[in-house]
Amino acid sequence: MEEQANGRTTTILHNNPLSLLQSVFGFQAFRGRQAEVIEALCSGRDALVLMPTGGGKSLCYQIPALIRPGVAVVVSPLIALMEDQVSALVQNGVRAAYLNSSLPFQAVAAVEQQLLRDELDLVYIAPERLLTEHSLGLFSKVRIALFAIDEAHCVSQWGHDFRQDYLQLSMLHERFPGIPRIALTATADELTRKEIIARLGLENAELFISGFDRPNIKYRVSLKDDAKQRVLKFLKLDHSGEAGIIYCLSRRKVDEIAAWLREQGLDALPYHAGMEKQDRSRNQRRFLMEEGVIMVATIAFGMGIDKPNVRFVVHLDLPKSIEAYYQETGRAGRDGLPAEAWLFYGLQDVVTLRQMLEGSDANEHRKRVERQKLDQMLGFCELTACRRVALLNYFGEEGSRGCGNCDNCLEPVATWDGTEAARMALSCIYRTGQRFGVNYLVGVLLGKPDSRIQKFGHDRQSTYGIGKDLGVDEWRSLFRQLAIRGLIDIDFENFGALRLNAASRPVLRGEYRLLLRKDRKKQEKGIRRPEHGLIGSEDQGLWEKLREERLKIAREQGLPPYIIFHDTTLREMAETKPVSLSRMAALSGVGEQKLAKYGERFIRVIDLYLAENPAREPSDREQ
Questions:
Q1: Average pLDDT over residues 438-461
Q2: In whole angstroms, what is the distance from residue 358 CA to residue 82 CA?
Q3: Residue 481 pLDDT more than 50?
Q4: pTM as predicted
Q5: How far apart, in whole angstroms, are the C-alpha atoms of residue 452 and residue 255?
Q6: Would you say 258 and 306 are in contact if contact means Cβ atoms under 8 Å apart?
């Protein structure tokens, strides 16, 4: 690797992993199992790495790329991710480039010449481009340090981000024997892990599984009652001026929510596959380059988005699986600072997703797997215990204590004995012919004088009016929980009519006690930011000035602000107020290149702030 200083190019003389981590990337120590992974790759061994989003996966191959002779070839599925990674590496003085369809012919040719002249440490490339005969022929002439397959869960046909081209990447081992390979992902249950190993030919790879916990993310799940207004309050009170993502199931809803938020004075943009490509690209660029933009999107948006200061992820519809939910919520708080994930769901989500599944072209085996995944997602929503523990257990990581940072830990959920009420509900389904949906059945149970009920003669049934001790919301909650627990079926071909099944009979006969979740009231307490916010109020003024300087530098270079410095680095600057290069160098994320480029500019900002606010002068300031 070479670094440039004052227009000259010099060669870094050390190749110790820890020295590179400190001097190039500005971090003082490795996290988790990073050092083990790096040692394996540097020694020429294959590795499969499962590490949570924000856990430092990229360093696991970037540092070996600087140590092993040749160029590291990084397979990446998205243009935006490649560009972000390369921009960040170049800022740190690393020789990196990418090859993708966004480059003109001349730029592609220039990168290929750099490869042939051994002038790159890392090159990022999409799988479909890598697998062309032209690219394979090019790399056969190049000294290769390693292959890194990022977002490796894309190889799984059971996953939510399946990419057909990933299936052919096993040929890298055949075509380039002896070159170490590393596959990385943040999301993979045991089934997906086995598929990654089989499809990429990684049977002899060392498996490195880091903890899946994201303790900085606050999880909350709510019913959809008045969701729009509750989210608006959340955005304005708790996350004003901050970046976040709002996921919706349909393109139409994405457009509607984005337009509505703009009417409320928020900077919200839509993103979905039905938009023109240039419109999607423009909106994504604004989200990355600007501060405080809210992206309203379908799941078409997000994989590989490297923006570390996404402070919230909201799901206005139910995800299809816990893997999808974990992957999407994991885009919040990649910098390790406090972030929030809020999911809204309802019985209609169950109906919609199951209709989509049953109407798909998938074979019966795949449908069965997808049904199971959806049921697990629904079970997560209905939990009364700690949500973080449930997530960790799902991915095979033992967790037994409450986290203190999810809704169920902060506001414990009450339960109630729904045995007799469930028997009434099941009896009502049976006596009305198993042909009606929730609203109709609730009307019968409450004895409403409805013309349809009278037309069908159900006002003369024994179940008419027997449920007046419960309200509409309580009955709707009961039917939802019965459906989610599999105690009743939903007839998708008959407008969501509820039907009994084999599991209904023991309940109907009262053979066991049924404890149900008591839904929280609509006037739910606002989601308050944890007391340990991004910055203390006494340093807020300096924090804002540092952000302004970072944005100014980013605009000068046409880069996202977080490429200059992450929020974690700016927060440390605001708290410690370094006024010398030696003290600035001690901050996390300030490597040698960034110190040389930006150190003096940020010191000037700090000096000016301290001159205007002498009371904030650090007691140990250097003289």
A1: 95
A2: 36
A3: yes
A4: 0.85
A5: 36
A6: no
Measured CA distances, 168 to 77, 163, 198, 434 (Å): 14, 10, 12, 49
pLDDT given at position 40: 97
> How far apart are the C-alpha atoms of 56 and 63, rounded to whole Å?
11
Task: Pick the more confident residue, 331 or 358.
Answer: 331
Return the residue matching tokens 């490429």. Answer: 563
| pLDDT at residue 4 is higher than 80 | no
Q: Name the residue among 614, 541, 576 with its Cα closest to residue 584.
A: 576
pLDDT in tens, 285-303: 999 999 999 999 998 676 6
Measured CA to CA, the distance from residue 5 to residue 12 in angstroms comes to 12
The three-state (H, E, C) secondary structure of 31-58, written as one string? CCCHHHHHHHHHCCCCEEEECCCCCCCC
Left if phi > 0, otherwise alpha if psi is -120 to 50, otherwise beta: which for 356?
A: alpha
Residue with tokens 């380059």: 289
**Other residues' Cβ atoms within 10 Å of the Cβ of residue 23:** 19
**Cβ contact 92:597 at 8 Å:** no
Cβ neighbours for 188, distance < 8 A, ≥ 6 positions apart: 50, 152, 153, 156, 159, 196, 323, 395
Q: What is the mean pLDDT of the chain?
A: 90
Burial class (CB in 10 A: 0-12, 13-18, 19+), 175: exposed
Dig out the tokens for 444 from the structure: 């019968």
591/594 Cα distance (integer angstroms) = 5
Q: Which two tokens stand for residue 288?
A: 């990355």
Q: Is the dihedral of CA 11, 17, 19, 25 positive or negative?
A: positive
Q: Which residue has the tokens 């989509």?
A: 356
Residue 8's DSSP bridge partners are 5
Better-scored residue on pLDDT, 410 or 397: 410
Cβ atoms of 557 and 600 within 8 Å: the answer is: no
Ramachandran angles phi, psi of 43, nearest 5°? -85, 0
Using alpha carbons, list the distances in angstroms from residue 527 to 116, 222, 237, 344, 411.
55, 12, 9, 14, 11
CB 527 within 8 A of CB 340: yes
**Sign (positive or negative) of CA dihedral 124, 127, 128, 134:** positive
* pLDDT score recorded for residue 407: 96
